[in-house]
């Protein structure tokens, strides 16, 4: 179980199974058991759907976080390449430097969400 799953499950008091298995005491002036059961069935379906949605979003967040880290790493690598090229060569690498700067700029837009 991932840490995100544990965090969500720690905050949720009832599981669909616990709702399903809940027994109520019957009183002389109590509710109609069939109505309660039907309503609890709806709640169970909602809980199940919420849990499915949450798990899907957690997976998506994890994937996006990994992608973000990879893109940031690529930006660092490109900056290092650019700095190395600038320090080792002069004007002959200006075309490559411009290409690298453009690529870094586009990656930064993707990573940091900058729209220019």
Distance between the termini: 40 Å
Biggest pleated sheet: none
What is the helix content? over 70%
- Rounded to an integer, what's the Rg over CA atoms? 27 Å
Report mean pLDDT, rounded to a whole number. Answer: 81
Overall geometry? rod-shaped
- Count of runs of 4 or more consecutive helical residues: 4
Query: What is the ordering of alpha helices and beta strands?
Result: HHHH
Total strands: 0
- By secondary-structure content and strand pairing, the structural class works out as mainly alpha
Give the low-confidence spans: none
Strand content of the residues, in percent? under 5%
Structural description of this entry:
This protein has helices at 3-11, 16-21, 33-88, 94-112. It has 116 residues and is mostly helical.
What's a quick, concise take on this entry?
By secondary structure, the chain is an all-alpha fold. The protein is built from four helices and no strands. α3 runs antiparallel to α4.
Keywords:
4 helices; 116 residues; mainly alpha; single chain; 0% strand
Secondary structure layout:
Elements (H helix, E strand, L loop, with lengths): L2 H9 L4 H6 L11 H56 L5 H19 L4
Helix pairs in contact: 3-4
